[in-house]
Amino acid sequence: MPKTLNPLPDKAKKKSLPLLQSALCSAIDLQLCCKQAHWNIIGEEFISLHELFDRVAHEVSDHVDLIAERIRQLGGVPDGRPATVVAGSTLGEFPEGLLEDEEMVEALATVVAKFAGQVLEALIKSAEAGDPSTSDLFTEISRGIEKQLWFIEAHRED
User: Fold this and answer.
1) Stated pTM of the model
2) Does some domain include residue 95?
3) Which helix (H) or strand (E) element contains residue 125?
4) What is the 3-state secondary structure (H, E, C) of 62-95?
5) Domain residues for 78?
6) What 3-state class would DSSP assign to 102?
7) CATH number for 108
8) Is residue 2 part of a domain?
């Protein structure tokens, strides 16, 4: 771990860094899932969902940067290489090809919810590790991603 004058105790850093790296992999994966959904949705709700999925992708991109920058602040080295993302993401496989609007909403809602759950767990674990700043970062991301999930779920057919 590169040296840093960041005052957080090394013990807390060592607990937070794997949480952050795992979240980074999932966030990059989620950003790509959002773009996949954005490009490949078909159906009557195309334009509204196409635009929504692009906005979600942009917000997730902001989360990616926040997470990577926090890793650097703690003296870690963020790894967003494709092989690392594939191995480290907790989201699972996203459907390929064109999907009707209802199917795409369900697919995207599922991966967004998985990411939201991972972020919530990381928030709790980083707080327990004695790292309030990382916990706060995860709180910010949690608030944002839960809002995006709400927007997506508003289009679900019950």
Assistant:
1) 0.96
2) yes
3) helix 101-128
4) HHHHHHHHHHHHCCCCCCCCHHHHHHHCCCCCCC
5) 10-153
6) helix
7) 1.20.1260.10
8) no
Asked, for residue 5, whether it belongs to a domain, the answer is no
Q: How far apart are CA 34 and CA 125, in angstroms?
A: 27
| Number of folded domains that form the chain | 1
Listed in sequence order, the residues at least 6 apart from 1 whose beta carbon sits closer than 8 Å to its beta carbon are 10, 13, 14, 17, 75, 76
Which single residue is written with the structure tokens 């767990």? 121
pLDDT in tens, the chain (158 residues): 667 889 999 999 999 999 999 999 999 999 999 999 999 999 999 999 999 999 999 999 999 999 999 999 999 999 999 999 999 999 999 999 999 999 999 999 999 999 999 999 999 999 999 999 999 999 999 999 999 999 999 999 77
CA distance 113 to 111: 5
Whether 124 maps to a domain, the answer reads yes
